[in-house]
Structures are given as C-alpha cells and as structure tokens.
Amino acid sequence: MNRDGLEWKVEDEWLQEVLEEAGKQYGKNNHLKEKIREDAIRTQKELWEEVGSVSIANGMDQIADFMQFINFMRTQKISHESTRKIQEKYEKVLSSPYFGRIDFIEDVENRAEKYYIGISNLIDDNIDFLIYDWRAPISSIFYDCEIGEASYKCPEGVIEGELTLKRQYKINNGKIEYMFDSNIKIDDEILQDILSKSTDNKMKTIVTTIQREQNKVIRNEKYKTLIVQGPAGSGKTSIALHRIAYVLYRYREKITPENIVIFSPNEIFNDYISNVLPELGEENMYQTTFKEYMDAALGNEFKKENYCEMMEYILGTKNELNYESRIYNIVYKSSVEFVNILKDYVKYVEKTDRKFSDIIFKDKLIVSSKDLQELFFKEYMPLPLKRRLRKIKERILFLLEPHKKDRIKEIAVELEYTGSYVNKNEILRDSITIVNDEMKEIYNEIDKITEFRLIEIYKEFFEKLDIFCTNSNILDCKEKIDKIRKYTLTGLENKSLNYEDQIILLYFKIMFGDISKTSEIKYVIIDEAQDYTPLQYEIFYQLFESANMTILGDLNQSINPFMNIGDYKNISHIFPKDNTSIINLTKSYRSTKEITEFSRKILNSEFINEGIQRKGDKPLLLGFTNEEEIKQKILEDIKIYKDKGYKSIGIITRTVEETKEVYNYLKDKAHINAIMKDDDEFINDTLIIPIYLAKGLEFDVVLIYNVGNENYSCEEEKLLLYTACTRALHILCIYYSGNSTPLLKEVL
Ligand SMILES: Nc1ncnc2c1ncn2[C@@H]1O[C@H](COP(=O)(O)OP(=O)(O)OP(=O)(O)O)[C@@H](O)[C@H]1O
C-alpha cells in the first residue's frame, strides 16, 4: 500500500489516536503503581513505628496488630504486581498495538464496522473497543474467513454477516512499517517473511499469522479430549501454547495458570517454550515432564534409570549381551496388551484374600479377623487397596484406644501404690511408657497386616505373569514370559529400576491409591505425544480424569523405536468416545520446501505439503573416509554458515557419547555449547545435541553427524533420522564416513 496515499494517511491517524489512548491509560496505571508503592513504604514504616519488634512476651494484641499489617502489605503487593503486569501490557500496545483489521457487516446492520485486532483489548472511557484481543470471538473472523460471507461464534450464538476487508499490518515502535489487504487467507507474504528469518532464541508467538486449521484447534471447545496429529513443523507446540492463552482468556473467571499443566519431553524443551505465554501477556502454566513427576512419586528407595540413560542404552549398546532381553522387555511393557494384563492384575490384588488375624490385647478380643475381613471386602471395598488398609488400621486403633486408656489407668494405680512417686504427671508419663511397651507387639502386628507393600505387589505380578497372560488370552510363549520375569526380578534384587518398570510402579501407585489425584488441574497439554506408551496415557487419564486434555504429536517422530504410542487407536479407547476428537494437521511451516521434500522421502511418503512453499538450498549428503574428517568439515561449515548470517546451528548426533566426542574436538576451535543431559540449559547458538534431546527444537542450520550405515542401519532408526532432518529451517547437511545409511538410498 502506498505510503503517500489517502488510505495510509487515514490508518496513520487512527494509529495515533490509539497510541494516544494507550499512552493516557499507561500514564494512569503508572500513577496508580507509584501510589501503591508509596503506600506500601508508608505501611512498612507504620509497622515499625506502631508495632515495633514482635515478641510473644508483648501479648496477643501485638501479634494481632502485626498480622493485620502483614495482611495489608500482602494485598498491597498483589495490587502492585497487577499494575506492573498492566504496565507491561501497555508497553507492548504502545510498540505494536495491533496487527490486523477486519471490516464486518452484521446481517442485521447495513454498515461495516472496523475491528482492529491485537495482543490485548484496548477500551476507552466510552467503553468503545479500540483494539480487540486476538482471542475475542469477533477476532476469529480474521483467522477463519475470506472476503465475502462470514460468521463467528460468540456466547449469544452464531453471528452472520459479510467480511468486506481484511488488512494486515506490521507496526513497530509505534510506526506502521507495512500493511496490505489480503483477499484470501492470512497472506503468505507475511508468513513467508516471518518463516524466512533466522531463529536466534526461544520459541516465538505466531499470533499474527495463525492459520485456519491451527485456529480450529486453538479455539476448540467442543471436545474434552483433543488428539492432534501433525507433521514436523506443523505448529503443534505453537498451537498448544496459543490454546492455553485462549483458555486463560475465555475462562478467565474460572481458570488460572495454576490450573493448567503442560507435559514436555524434557527441561530443555520447557526452557525453549517458556517465552511464548509471557509474550502473549499471560503467565506461564505449570511446566513439567513425565520423568519429573514419576521421580517425585517413586522416591529414592531404588536406583532409577533415567530417560537419557535408557535412550543411550537403546541407541548405543546394541552389542551388549543382554540387549535383546532388555529390548524385548521394553517392547512388551509398552504394549496395549500389557496394559490389559496390568488391569487384570490390579483387579486380582484388590480381591485377594488378606491374612488378617484376631487382634487381642491382654486376653481381650479387640476385633476378630472375620470382622476385619468383612470391613475389607464389604464396607471399604469401593476404596483402592492402600486406602482400605489405612482405614482398617484406623479402625483397629480406634477400637484399641479405650483399652489402652484403661490399661494406663490400671498401671497408674499400681505405680502410685509403690509409693515411689510424688508427682502425678510423672506417674502418668511412666504409665504411658509402660503401656506403649506392652503394646509394641500388637502395634507391629497391626502394621504388618495393614502394610501396603508396593514392591511385593510388583514382584508377585511378575512371579505370576503367565497366569495373567493366559487370563488375557495373550498367546505368549512360556519362554518369552520366563525371560521377562527373570530380567525384571533380577533388576529388583539389585535394587535398580529400569525406566519402563518405573512406569508400571507409578501405575500401581495410582491404582492402589498411593497417590492422590488432583482436581486442581483443569487443562492438561501433552506435547510430543508419540513418545508416551499406552500405559503412560492410562496414567495421565487416571491422574487427570476430569481435566480437558490436548494431546499433540507426530507418529513419524517416535524417537524411541521400542517405546512409543504406536498408533492413536491404542489410546483412543481410554478417553470417552463422544467427547474425543482426532484432528489431523496437514501443512508444515518450519523447513524450506527442499528440506521438507527430502525428509518426507526418508519416510517413503509423498510430498503433499500444502503449506508454505519457501524455497531454499537442497540438503547435502557428504561422504568421508573417517570420523575425523567429518569433524573437520563440520568445523569449516560452522564458520561458513555463521559468516552467511545464520544465528543458530544444531549439530545433531545419535547419542550423548557422540555429542561428547564431537564437543571435545570442537570446543577449543569454535564457540560452541553441548547438551548432554535432559536438564541442561537451552542455548540456541551453536549447539551439539543428541537427537532424542533435540526433538521439538529447531535450528537455522542442522548438521547431522555421521549417518554411516553403522549408525543408522535399520528401519527402526528411520524415524530418528527423520526427526533430526526436520529440525532444520533453512540448511541441512548430513555427513557420513564409510558407507551412507541405506535409509537415504532413495532420497537424493
Ligand atoms: N501460523 C504460523 N505462523 C508463523 N509461524 C508458524 C506458524 N505455525 C508454525 N510456525 C512456525 O513453524 C515452526 C514449527 O512450529 P512448532 O515447533 O510449533 O511445530 P511442531 O509441529 O510442534 O513441530 P515438531 O513436531 O517438528 O516439533 C516454528 O518456528 C513456528 O514458529
């Protein structure tokens, strides 16, 4: 659009009006913030002057005054924090107040209204909206509709009308840099411009260019559980975060960030996505990983293998003696059939007879074993095992209490009679000690019969595994079951728990009531969903049964060939059918056309990307005689691509071992960082990282280290390689020594 034209002038005038109003509100808020700060300082002074130093010796009145001050100061702090947040919002508005405009004529009106769309609402004193939040119902027209008939949903129903104009702006530092009208969808030019840029830091918001298929997921309110399958770079993580922002806006009276949890693959990823919500003016939700949750739940009794250690084992120790047994264990314990076996076993344990004994104290029957059985199998039956046992214990102690009191009285009389006491308190104290001593055995017995022994339950499961396999009609041969049993029980004897076993223990803990479920969490987001097993989904469901769930993944990016979801069919039965929807995204945005084409060929899947057709260099496959030469070439290429202006370079290896090797070579020769643990800090500069920790991340330039046929030799590793290639935005170079992997034979 012409800068000297009338339209530009009109837009500029409007922008000035908006900035003036925003500036006015910004000033008011600053004034309020300053006043709250001064008040808070005054309150603190008054606290010292009026209350002084607090001591119990000064009486309860002083403590009450002190508490009153503290509560007041707390309220002042909250108000100050709130004005600080509003200030940040205005600062954003003053720099870039809006990015879109729609002109819409409602069917019942005859004149088009202009709606400017930005990160947040701006409302003047007359309650006129100068800017509409991108999450407001009317704003969905901007993302969903083309010029012509259009409609949007709002709490009152569907509003129909005609969209007569859709305009996009880039406003920076309060100045229009460019604007243009888009007749069809959100214009490719702006999207192209955004995508062609270099990525220098953490993930960014996509609010100005959300695509229609993405908007459908972000605003979906119809289903409680959404399963979103989308190819690499289709915006799944971006959608997840924008959906959270949407929920926080839409249900702001009911839902706060503390009611939302996102399960990410690792800490690095958590760090990578941590800026998006604050950029959108919202606070971050609770970010966690399955591993973190499981670690906290299982405690430290056993040596627990972590996820990285398992991946290193799977990818790096193929020649190890027990490798096959371990892999078979992982595969078996990750299958849907196994979940069914576990369910049967849980039922069995809940119904299994327990050896209750009569509780007798001083020849008096306190409660009979028959009564305890009755309580256990009838009255408390609806509760999970651990809670039933706790109830039984409470019951016995309750029945025992009067007998204990009587006995204490009896002993007290006896002690008094000895004449060696002058003080009644001493008599009481000694009587209690004597009775506690007498009751030691009975307390031990109570503990024994009501103890919840998780590891014993787990052991018994594997000891009886063949029975449950037969019950579940699973035709596994005895030899295989024996192998699994032996492998698992040996691990337990050595007090060590493999990653896959920890998941089972966590499941038992939940099912037997050893972990309390939370109703605080109302929204759960599970990203990189392909890398969780059906059993892990059972756990998610059990923990957050009443919450809404958005599950986002790409089956083609399963980085663990033996432990993954397999197919969405494997989990869809877990969630109520009529409240669950599977949505397929088809377009991808991250990589150039050439890189996307190349990566799809690894999967033998056709390139049908209707997304953005951003052109770039063809990926390179470079062969060398040994690994030393690869490292030399990588060093050269880092310099070449840095000189070309690319900001982030990811050198992707297969394992941490390889990361160490490459890092040791490069560390004194180039400015470089390495990620070797799943809680290392994410620094998106030049980074060496094993592929299983790089999932979800992206780099301008991806250099894949040693794709020789020894490293990537079988079909199972295809998805690993695909995931590595799809991390690249602009440049992809693959290096190998000796022979290249057969997985790339058909690709170039
Ligand atoms: N509508 C959009 N507008 C601008 N950029 C977008 C859009 N959608 C996605 N992107 C960009 O595409 C890249 C990939 O997005 P994201 O990481 O969310 O995809 P993903 O599906 O989670 O990827 P993967 O499964 O490969 O990890 C990011 O750089 C993101 O900013």
UniProtKB/TrEMBL annotation:
Name of the protein described by the UniProt record: DNA 3'-5' helicase
Gene3D superfamilies hit by this protein: P-loop containing nucleotide triphosphate hydrolases (3.40.50.300)
Domain UvrD-like helicase ATP-binding residue range list: 209-592
Keywords linked to the UniProt accession: ATP-binding, Helicase, Hydrolase, Isomerase, Nucleotide-binding
GO BP term, example: recombinational repair
Originating species: Tissierella pigra
PROSITE patterns: UVRD_HELICASE_ATP_BIND
SUPFAM superfamilies, alphabetized: P-loop containing nucleoside triphosphate hydrolases
